[in-house]
Amino acid sequence: MNLMKKVLVAIAGGSVLAAGIAMLVLPGPALVVIPAALAILAIEFHWARRWLAWLRERLKAIGANKSSIGPTPNLNSLDAGRTQER
């Protein structure tokens, strides 16, 4: 039973991962599908758990860097000034 579960998880996770990798060059939400595939594979495989943990840490670091930059400029206010000049 344990081997069957491992094989089914490998097939399902591998298929989703292959689709996510294909979406890197094809239209589709690759940045959502690849972590989902790793989450499926992490049910049975330690390497997928490590990759998923690494990915989470990278995303946290990216989020922390974006929040320290400051607010994004309001582009609508820039356009409003330009239309008044004309």
What does this structure look like?
This protein is mainly α and 86 residues long. The chain has one domain. Helices cover 79% and strands 0% of the residues. It is built from four helices and no strands. The protein has helices at residues 2-22, 30-41, 46-69, 75-85. Helix 1 packs antiparallel against helix 2 and helix 2 (30-41) packs antiparallel against helix 3. The protein is elongated, with a radius of gyration of 21 Å. The protein starts with a helix and ends with a helix. The relative contact order is 0.10.
Q: Strands, helices and their partners?
A:
Blueprint lengths: L1 H21 L7 H12 L4 H24 L5 H11 L1
Structure summarized in a few sentences:
The protein is mostly helical and 86 residues long. The protein is 79% helix and 0% strand.
**In terms of per-residue confidence, which ranges show pLDDT below 50 for 5 or more consecutive residues?**
none
The radius of gyration is: 21 Å
How many distinct beta strands? 0
Percent of sequence in beta strands? under 5%
Q: Provide a count of the helices.
A: 4
What kind of sheet is the major sheet? none
Q: How confident overall, as mean pLDDT?
A: 84
Order of helices and strands: HHHH
How many structural domains in the coordinates? 1
**Alpha carbon gap, first and last residue:** 74 Å
Helix content: over 70%
Which class of secondary structure composition applies to the elements?
A: mainly alpha
Please tell me what the overall shape is: elongated
